[in-house]
Amino acid sequence: MTQNNNSFVRDKMEVALAPPISEAGITGWMKKNLFSSPFNTVLTLIGAYLIYLIVPPLLEFSFFDAVWSGTDRNACTTEQQGGALPNGWHAACWPYIGAYMQFFTFGRYPDAELWRPIFLFVLFFAGLIPLMMPTAPYKRFNMIFMLLVYPVLAFILLGGGNVKLNGFLLPESIMAPSEFKFWVDFAILTAVVLGIVLLMQILTKTDPILPLLVALGIMVVIGLVMFFMSADFGLHEVETDNWGGLLLTLVIAVTGIAASLPIGIVLALGRRSEMPTVRLLSVIFIEFWRGVPLITVLFMSSVMLPLFLPEGVNFDKLLRALIGVGLFSAAYMAEVVRGGLQAIPKGQFEGAMAVGLSYWQSMRMIILPQAIKIVIPGIVNTFIGLFKDTTLVSVIGLFDLLGAINNSHTDSSWATPVMALTSYLFCAVIYFVFCFAMARYSLFMERQLDTGHKN
Fold first, then answer.
1. What's phi and psi for 46, nearest 5 deg?
2. What is the pLDDT of residues 310-346, one digit of tens each?
3. Where do the structural domains in the chain lie, given as residue ranges?
4. Residue 426 to residues 187, 421, 422: CA-CA distances in angstroms?
5. Can you tell me the distance from the alpha carbon of 289 to that of 293, in angstroms, rounded to the nearest whole number?
6. Which of 186, 268, 269, 361 is least surrounded by CB atoms within 10 angstroms?
Protein backbone atom coordinates (compact mmCIF):
# COMPACT_ATOMS: atom_id res chain seq x y z
CA MET A 1 0.00 0.00 0.00
CA THR A 2 1.52 3.29 -1.10
CA GLN A 3 1.29 6.49 0.97
CA ASN A 4 0.64 9.76 -0.90
CA ASN A 5 2.91 12.67 0.12
CA ASN A 6 0.97 15.94 -0.33
CA SER A 7 3.68 18.23 1.12
CA PHE A 8 5.09 20.99 -1.03
CA VAL A 9 8.46 22.68 -0.68
CA ARG A 10 8.99 25.97 -2.53
CA ASP A 11 12.36 26.12 -4.19
CA LYS A 12 11.96 29.61 -5.67
CA MET A 13 10.70 32.86 -4.02
CA GLU A 14 7.89 34.64 -5.75
CA VAL A 15 8.37 38.29 -6.70
CA ALA A 16 6.64 40.65 -4.27
CA LEU A 17 3.74 42.40 -5.91
CA ALA A 18 3.15 46.12 -5.56
CA PRO A 19 0.25 47.12 -3.29
CA PRO A 20 -3.03 47.94 -5.05
CA ILE A 21 -3.24 51.46 -6.40
CA SER A 22 -6.30 52.09 -4.29
CA GLU A 23 -4.34 51.32 -1.08
CA ALA A 24 -1.04 53.18 -1.63
CA GLY A 25 0.21 56.61 -2.64
CA ILE A 26 -1.99 59.65 -2.97
CA THR A 27 -5.00 57.58 -4.01
CA GLY A 28 -4.74 55.38 -0.93
CA TRP A 29 -4.27 58.38 1.36
CA MET A 30 -7.33 60.13 -0.12
CA LYS A 31 -9.43 56.97 0.21
CA LYS A 32 -8.39 56.52 3.83
CA ASN A 33 -8.62 60.14 5.00
CA LEU A 34 -11.06 61.93 2.69
CA PHE A 35 -13.46 59.36 1.22
CA SER A 36 -13.49 56.58 3.81
CA SER A 37 -17.28 56.80 4.27
CA PRO A 38 -20.26 58.57 2.69
CA PHE A 39 -20.32 61.11 5.53
CA ASN A 40 -16.61 61.90 5.17
CA THR A 41 -17.06 62.19 1.42
CA VAL A 42 -19.78 64.81 1.88
CA LEU A 43 -17.59 66.74 4.33
CA THR A 44 -14.67 66.61 1.90
CA LEU A 45 -16.78 67.97 -0.95
CA ILE A 46 -18.14 70.78 1.26
CA GLY A 47 -14.61 71.66 2.37
CA ALA A 48 -13.37 71.68 -1.21
CA TYR A 49 -16.19 74.02 -2.21
CA LEU A 50 -15.39 76.41 0.65
CA ILE A 51 -11.72 76.42 -0.40
CA TYR A 52 -12.82 77.20 -3.95
CA LEU A 53 -14.87 80.15 -2.70
CA ILE A 54 -12.14 81.59 -0.42
CA VAL A 55 -8.67 80.79 -1.75
CA PRO A 56 -8.83 81.98 -5.42
CA PRO A 57 -10.26 85.44 -4.56
CA LEU A 58 -7.72 85.78 -1.73
CA LEU A 59 -4.84 84.94 -4.07
CA GLU A 60 -6.13 87.36 -6.68
CA PHE A 61 -6.42 90.15 -4.12
CA SER A 62 -3.06 89.42 -2.47
CA PHE A 63 -0.85 88.62 -5.45
CA PHE A 64 -2.26 88.44 -8.96
CA ASP A 65 -4.13 91.78 -9.05
CA ALA A 66 -2.06 93.54 -6.39
CA VAL A 67 0.18 96.58 -6.89
CA TRP A 68 3.84 96.10 -5.90
CA SER A 69 5.44 99.50 -6.55
CA GLY A 70 4.48 103.14 -6.18
CA THR A 71 4.96 106.25 -4.09
CA ASP A 72 1.40 107.26 -3.16
CA ARG A 73 -2.25 106.31 -3.47
CA ASN A 74 -2.27 107.00 -7.22
CA ALA A 75 -0.25 103.85 -7.80
CA CYS A 76 -3.17 101.78 -6.56
CA THR A 77 -5.82 103.21 -8.88
CA THR A 78 -6.45 102.42 -12.54
CA GLU A 79 -8.84 103.38 -15.27
CA GLN A 80 -8.86 99.85 -16.62
CA GLN A 81 -11.50 97.51 -15.31
CA GLY A 82 -9.67 94.32 -16.21
CA GLY A 83 -7.80 93.00 -13.19
CA ALA A 84 -9.15 95.78 -10.98
CA LEU A 85 -11.88 96.10 -8.43
CA PRO A 86 -15.26 97.36 -9.66
CA ASN A 87 -14.68 100.78 -8.11
CA GLY A 88 -11.58 101.37 -10.23
CA TRP A 89 -9.01 100.44 -7.59
CA HIS A 90 -6.48 97.69 -7.75
CA ALA A 91 -6.42 94.93 -5.14
CA ALA A 92 -3.80 94.88 -2.35
CA CYS A 93 -1.68 98.04 -2.24
CA TRP A 94 1.69 96.70 -1.05
CA PRO A 95 3.66 99.96 -1.63
CA TYR A 96 1.68 101.38 1.29
CA ILE A 97 2.99 98.54 3.50
CA GLY A 98 6.53 99.19 2.30
CA ALA A 99 6.24 102.90 3.04
CA TYR A 100 5.07 102.19 6.59
CA MET A 101 7.23 99.14 7.30
CA GLN A 102 9.54 101.03 9.66
CA PHE A 103 6.59 102.47 11.55
CA PHE A 104 4.90 99.07 11.78
CA THR A 105 8.11 97.55 13.13
CA PHE A 106 9.50 100.19 15.50
CA GLY A 107 6.72 102.75 15.98
CA ARG A 108 8.01 106.29 16.51
CA TYR A 109 11.46 105.16 17.57
CA PRO A 110 14.03 107.80 16.45
CA ASP A 111 15.72 107.03 13.13
CA ALA A 112 19.19 107.78 14.51
CA GLU A 113 18.71 105.17 17.25
CA LEU A 114 17.20 102.36 15.17
CA TRP A 115 20.42 100.37 15.42
CA ARG A 116 19.55 99.61 19.05
CA PRO A 117 16.27 97.69 18.51
CA ILE A 118 17.69 96.07 15.36
CA PHE A 119 20.70 94.84 17.33
CA LEU A 120 18.38 93.52 20.05
CA PHE A 121 16.23 91.70 17.47
CA VAL A 122 19.32 89.96 16.07
CA LEU A 123 20.62 89.16 19.56
CA PHE A 124 17.23 87.85 20.67
CA PHE A 125 16.82 85.36 17.83
CA ALA A 126 20.52 84.44 17.95
CA GLY A 127 20.05 83.44 21.59
CA LEU A 128 16.56 81.96 21.25
CA ILE A 129 17.24 79.59 18.36
CA PRO A 130 20.05 77.57 20.05
CA LEU A 131 18.09 77.66 23.31
CA MET A 132 15.19 75.89 21.57
CA MET A 133 17.47 73.25 20.02
CA PRO A 134 17.76 70.22 22.37
CA THR A 135 21.24 69.26 21.11
CA ALA A 136 22.78 72.75 21.13
CA PRO A 137 25.88 73.05 23.37
CA TYR A 138 26.33 75.43 26.32
CA LYS A 139 22.62 75.32 27.07
CA ARG A 140 23.07 76.48 30.68
CA PHE A 141 25.10 79.57 29.74
CA ASN A 142 22.65 80.39 26.97
CA MET A 143 19.74 80.19 29.42
CA ILE A 144 21.55 82.43 31.93
CA PHE A 145 22.18 84.95 29.18
CA MET A 146 18.57 84.97 27.95
CA LEU A 147 16.98 85.09 31.42
CA LEU A 148 19.35 87.42 33.27
CA VAL A 149 21.68 89.31 30.94
CA TYR A 150 19.46 89.95 27.91
CA PRO A 151 16.52 91.60 29.77
CA VAL A 152 18.84 94.13 31.43
CA LEU A 153 20.68 94.72 28.16
CA ALA A 154 17.38 95.19 26.30
CA PHE A 155 16.10 97.67 28.89
CA ILE A 156 19.31 99.70 28.73
CA LEU A 157 19.51 99.76 24.93
CA LEU A 158 15.82 100.46 24.29
CA GLY A 159 15.40 103.11 26.95
CA GLY A 160 18.94 104.48 27.00
CA GLY A 161 19.79 103.56 30.60
CA ASN A 162 20.59 106.23 33.18
CA VAL A 163 17.25 105.65 34.90
CA LYS A 164 16.74 107.82 37.95
CA LEU A 165 16.31 105.06 40.48
CA ASN A 166 17.41 107.15 43.44
CA GLY A 167 14.36 107.29 45.66
CA PHE A 168 11.94 105.52 43.32
CA LEU A 169 10.42 103.78 46.34
CA LEU A 170 10.24 107.00 48.37
CA PRO A 171 7.97 110.02 47.83
CA GLU A 172 9.65 113.05 46.30
CA SER A 173 8.69 115.08 49.37
CA ILE A 174 11.41 113.34 51.42
CA MET A 175 14.49 115.54 51.21
CA ALA A 176 17.68 113.50 51.23
CA PRO A 177 20.84 113.07 49.13
CA SER A 178 20.42 110.89 46.06
CA GLU A 179 23.03 108.40 47.30
CA PHE A 180 21.09 107.99 50.54
CA LYS A 181 17.84 107.35 48.65
CA PHE A 182 19.57 104.78 46.41
CA TRP A 183 20.68 102.73 49.42
CA VAL A 184 17.26 103.11 51.03
CA ASP A 185 15.70 101.65 47.88
CA PHE A 186 18.17 98.77 47.93
CA ALA A 187 17.54 98.17 51.63
CA ILE A 188 13.75 98.10 51.10
CA LEU A 189 14.04 95.59 48.25
CA THR A 190 16.47 93.48 50.28
CA ALA A 191 14.11 93.46 53.26
CA VAL A 192 11.22 92.38 51.03
CA VAL A 193 13.26 89.53 49.51
CA LEU A 194 14.51 88.35 52.91
CA GLY A 195 10.99 88.53 54.34
CA ILE A 196 9.54 86.42 51.54
CA VAL A 197 12.34 83.85 51.74
CA LEU A 198 12.15 83.54 55.53
CA LEU A 199 8.36 83.25 55.40
CA MET A 200 8.63 80.42 52.87
CA GLN A 201 11.26 78.75 55.07
CA ILE A 202 9.01 78.93 58.11
CA LEU A 203 5.97 77.62 56.22
CA THR A 204 7.82 74.77 54.51
CA LYS A 205 10.06 73.98 57.54
CA THR A 206 13.14 73.49 55.36
CA ASP A 207 16.81 73.98 56.13
CA PRO A 208 17.42 77.76 56.42
CA ILE A 209 20.86 77.61 54.76
CA LEU A 210 19.60 77.15 51.21
CA PRO A 211 16.91 79.88 51.43
CA LEU A 212 19.47 82.32 52.82
CA LEU A 213 21.87 81.53 49.98
CA VAL A 214 19.04 82.06 47.50
CA ALA A 215 18.18 85.37 49.15
CA LEU A 216 21.83 86.44 49.02
CA GLY A 217 21.97 85.63 45.30
CA ILE A 218 18.76 87.57 44.65
CA MET A 219 20.13 90.56 46.56
CA VAL A 220 23.30 90.54 44.47
CA VAL A 221 21.28 90.35 41.25
CA ILE A 222 19.01 93.21 42.40
CA GLY A 223 22.04 95.34 43.25
CA LEU A 224 23.69 94.70 39.88
CA VAL A 225 20.45 95.39 38.00
CA MET A 226 19.91 98.66 39.88
CA PHE A 227 23.50 99.69 39.22
CA PHE A 228 23.39 99.04 35.48
CA MET A 229 19.93 100.58 35.09
CA SER A 230 21.08 103.78 36.77
CA ALA A 231 24.48 103.96 35.04
CA ASP A 232 25.06 106.47 32.26
CA PHE A 233 26.16 104.69 29.08
CA GLY A 234 26.01 107.80 26.90
CA LEU A 235 22.90 106.63 25.04
CA HIS A 236 20.12 108.98 24.00
CA GLU A 237 17.03 108.47 26.16
CA VAL A 238 14.01 107.16 24.27
CA GLU A 239 10.70 107.39 26.12
CA THR A 240 8.47 104.33 26.07
CA ASP A 241 5.77 106.46 24.40
CA ASN A 242 7.94 106.26 21.25
CA TRP A 243 8.11 102.48 21.32
CA GLY A 244 5.55 100.84 19.09
CA GLY A 245 4.75 98.40 16.34
CA LEU A 246 6.10 94.87 16.34
CA LEU A 247 8.81 95.96 18.78
CA LEU A 248 6.26 96.79 21.48
CA THR A 249 4.26 93.65 20.73
CA LEU A 250 7.31 91.46 21.28
CA VAL A 251 8.32 93.35 24.42
CA ILE A 252 4.91 92.78 26.01
CA ALA A 253 4.54 89.18 24.79
CA VAL A 254 8.04 88.02 25.73
CA THR A 255 7.86 89.71 29.14
CA GLY A 256 4.45 88.20 29.85
CA ILE A 257 5.57 84.73 28.74
CA ALA A 258 8.80 84.86 30.75
CA ALA A 259 6.96 86.03 33.89
CA SER A 260 3.82 83.90 33.67
CA LEU A 261 5.44 80.45 33.63
CA PRO A 262 7.48 80.62 36.88
CA ILE A 263 4.78 82.58 38.73
CA GLY A 264 2.15 80.16 37.46
CA ILE A 265 4.16 77.15 38.68
CA VAL A 266 4.50 78.69 42.16
CA LEU A 267 0.77 79.47 42.26
CA ALA A 268 -0.12 75.94 41.14
CA LEU A 269 2.05 74.45 43.87
CA GLY A 270 0.54 76.87 46.37
CA ARG A 271 -3.01 75.92 45.40
CA ARG A 272 -2.18 72.23 46.00
CA SER A 273 -0.33 72.94 49.23
CA GLU A 274 -1.44 71.34 52.49
CA MET A 275 -0.90 74.64 54.34
CA PRO A 276 -4.28 76.42 54.52
CA THR A 277 -2.81 79.94 54.43
CA VAL A 278 -0.71 79.33 51.34
CA ARG A 279 -3.56 77.52 49.59
CA LEU A 280 -6.08 80.27 50.42
CA LEU A 281 -3.79 83.07 49.19
CA SER A 282 -3.09 81.18 45.96
CA VAL A 283 -6.79 80.54 45.34
CA ILE A 284 -7.69 84.18 45.98
CA PHE A 285 -4.98 85.40 43.60
CA ILE A 286 -5.91 82.96 40.82
CA GLU A 287 -9.65 83.46 41.03
CA PHE A 288 -9.35 87.23 41.23
CA TRP A 289 -7.21 87.58 38.12
CA ARG A 290 -9.16 84.97 36.17
CA GLY A 291 -12.43 86.69 37.03
CA VAL A 292 -11.39 90.06 35.57
CA PRO A 293 -11.10 90.74 31.81
CA LEU A 294 -7.64 91.73 30.59
CA ILE A 295 -8.91 95.01 29.19
CA THR A 296 -10.15 95.90 32.70
CA VAL A 297 -6.73 95.03 34.12
CA LEU A 298 -5.08 97.34 31.59
CA PHE A 299 -7.48 100.18 32.37
CA MET A 300 -6.93 99.66 36.09
CA SER A 301 -3.14 99.69 35.75
CA SER A 302 -3.15 102.73 33.48
CA VAL A 303 -5.86 104.93 34.99
CA MET A 304 -6.74 103.78 38.49
CA LEU A 305 -3.39 102.63 39.88
CA PRO A 306 -1.77 106.10 39.90
CA LEU A 307 -4.65 107.36 42.04
CA PHE A 308 -3.70 104.96 44.85
CA LEU A 309 0.03 105.72 44.82
CA PRO A 310 1.60 108.29 47.19
CA GLU A 311 2.17 111.76 45.85
CA GLY A 312 5.30 111.92 43.72
CA VAL A 313 5.45 108.15 43.14
CA ASN A 314 4.61 107.02 39.63
CA PHE A 315 5.43 104.18 37.27
CA ASP A 316 5.82 104.17 33.53
CA LYS A 317 2.65 103.29 31.60
CA LEU A 318 4.37 100.43 29.78
CA LEU A 319 5.71 99.03 33.05
CA ARG A 320 2.23 99.06 34.54
CA ALA A 321 0.88 97.24 31.48
CA LEU A 322 3.68 94.65 31.68
CA ILE A 323 2.91 93.94 35.34
CA GLY A 324 -0.81 93.61 34.62
CA VAL A 325 -0.30 91.28 31.65
CA GLY A 326 2.22 89.15 33.56
CA LEU A 327 -0.03 88.64 36.60
CA PHE A 328 -3.11 88.05 34.44
CA SER A 329 -1.44 85.36 32.35
CA ALA A 330 0.19 83.80 35.44
CA ALA A 331 -3.25 83.03 36.89
CA TYR A 332 -4.23 81.10 33.74
CA MET A 333 -0.85 79.39 33.63
CA ALA A 334 -1.31 78.25 37.23
CA GLU A 335 -4.45 76.31 36.32
CA VAL A 336 -2.73 74.72 33.34
CA VAL A 337 0.16 73.53 35.50
CA ARG A 338 -2.23 72.38 38.24
CA GLY A 339 -3.94 70.16 35.69
CA GLY A 340 -0.59 68.54 34.94
CA LEU A 341 0.13 68.03 38.64
CA GLN A 342 -3.22 66.33 39.15
CA ALA A 343 -2.48 63.97 36.26
CA ILE A 344 0.62 62.58 37.98
CA PRO A 345 -0.15 59.24 39.72
CA LYS A 346 0.01 59.22 43.50
CA GLY A 347 2.70 56.58 43.33
CA GLN A 348 5.16 59.13 41.96
CA PHE A 349 4.77 61.27 45.11
CA GLU A 350 5.02 58.23 47.36
CA GLY A 351 8.08 56.95 45.53
CA ALA A 352 9.83 60.31 45.92
CA MET A 353 9.14 60.31 49.65
CA ALA A 354 10.24 56.68 49.95
CA VAL A 355 13.74 57.45 48.66
CA GLY A 356 14.10 60.32 51.12
CA LEU A 357 13.61 63.31 48.83
CA SER A 358 12.31 66.54 50.32
CA TYR A 359 9.24 68.31 48.96
CA TRP A 360 11.22 70.70 46.76
CA GLN A 361 13.60 67.97 45.58
CA SER A 362 10.76 65.71 44.55
CA MET A 363 9.01 68.57 42.77
CA ARG A 364 12.15 69.70 40.97
CA MET A 365 13.43 66.29 39.89
CA ILE A 366 10.37 64.04 39.58
CA ILE A 367 6.94 65.69 39.67
CA LEU A 368 7.28 69.01 37.81
CA PRO A 369 9.19 67.62 34.78
CA GLN A 370 6.43 65.06 34.20
CA ALA A 371 3.63 67.54 34.84
CA ILE A 372 5.04 70.18 32.50
CA LYS A 373 5.62 67.58 29.80
CA ILE A 374 1.96 66.56 30.02
CA VAL A 375 0.62 70.13 29.73
CA ILE A 376 2.94 71.39 26.97
CA PRO A 377 -0.07 71.93 24.63
CA GLY A 378 -1.88 73.93 27.30
CA ILE A 379 1.20 76.02 28.10
CA VAL A 380 1.83 76.89 24.47
CA ASN A 381 -1.87 77.58 23.97
CA THR A 382 -1.68 80.13 26.82
CA PHE A 383 1.43 81.67 25.24
CA ILE A 384 -0.33 82.01 21.88
CA GLY A 385 -3.37 83.61 23.52
CA LEU A 386 -1.11 86.03 25.38
CA PHE A 387 0.70 86.97 22.18
CA LYS A 388 -2.59 87.82 20.47
CA ASP A 389 -3.98 89.63 23.53
CA THR A 390 -1.16 92.19 23.29
CA THR A 391 -3.38 94.05 20.82
CA LEU A 392 -5.52 95.20 23.78
CA VAL A 393 -2.80 97.61 24.96
CA SER A 394 -3.89 100.01 22.23
CA VAL A 395 -6.88 100.97 24.40
CA ILE A 396 -4.51 102.61 26.93
CA GLY A 397 -2.53 104.55 24.33
CA LEU A 398 0.26 102.05 23.55
CA PHE A 399 0.68 101.51 19.82
CA ASP A 400 1.52 97.86 19.27
CA LEU A 401 1.50 96.33 15.79
CA LEU A 402 -2.28 96.56 15.37
CA GLY A 403 -2.36 100.01 16.97
CA ALA A 404 0.34 101.25 14.59
CA ILE A 405 -1.63 99.87 11.63
CA ASN A 406 -4.82 101.62 12.74
CA ASN A 407 -2.87 104.85 13.28
CA SER A 408 -1.53 104.72 9.71
CA HIS A 409 -5.06 104.78 8.28
CA THR A 410 -5.22 108.53 8.94
CA ASP A 411 -2.60 109.23 6.25
CA SER A 412 -4.48 110.80 3.34
CA SER A 413 -1.59 110.26 0.90
CA TRP A 414 -2.29 106.50 0.99
CA ALA A 415 -6.05 106.59 1.65
CA THR A 416 -7.74 104.08 -0.62
CA PRO A 417 -10.68 101.65 -0.30
CA VAL A 418 -8.15 98.78 -0.08
CA MET A 419 -5.90 100.43 2.50
CA ALA A 420 -7.49 98.80 5.54
CA LEU A 421 -7.85 95.42 3.83
CA THR A 422 -4.17 95.39 2.86
CA SER A 423 -2.94 96.41 6.30
CA TYR A 424 -5.12 93.91 8.16
CA LEU A 425 -4.02 91.15 5.80
CA PHE A 426 -0.40 92.06 6.54
CA CYS A 427 -1.14 92.08 10.28
CA ALA A 428 -2.85 88.68 10.08
CA VAL A 429 0.15 87.17 8.31
CA ILE A 430 2.57 88.47 10.97
CA TYR A 431 0.49 87.09 13.83
CA PHE A 432 -0.02 83.79 12.01
CA VAL A 433 3.73 83.34 11.47
CA PHE A 434 4.54 83.80 15.16
CA CYS A 435 1.61 81.73 16.43
CA PHE A 436 2.16 78.94 13.91
CA ALA A 437 5.87 78.82 14.82
CA MET A 438 4.99 78.41 18.52
CA ALA A 439 2.47 75.67 17.67
CA ARG A 440 4.95 73.72 15.55
CA TYR A 441 7.64 73.99 18.20
CA SER A 442 5.13 72.65 20.72
CA LEU A 443 4.57 69.57 18.54
CA PHE A 444 8.34 69.17 18.15
CA MET A 445 8.86 69.22 21.92
CA GLU A 446 6.03 66.73 22.43
CA ARG A 447 7.75 64.30 20.06
CA GLN A 448 11.13 64.87 21.69
CA LEU A 449 9.78 64.22 25.20
CA ASP A 450 7.51 61.32 24.24
CA THR A 451 8.43 58.34 26.44
CA GLY A 452 6.11 55.87 24.75
CA HIS A 453 3.46 55.78 27.46
CA LYS A 454 0.66 57.18 25.33
CA ASN A 455 -2.39 55.06 24.73
1. -65, -45
2. 665 567 788 888 888 988 999 999 999 999 888 888 8
3. 240-407
4. 49, 9, 6
5. 8
6. 361
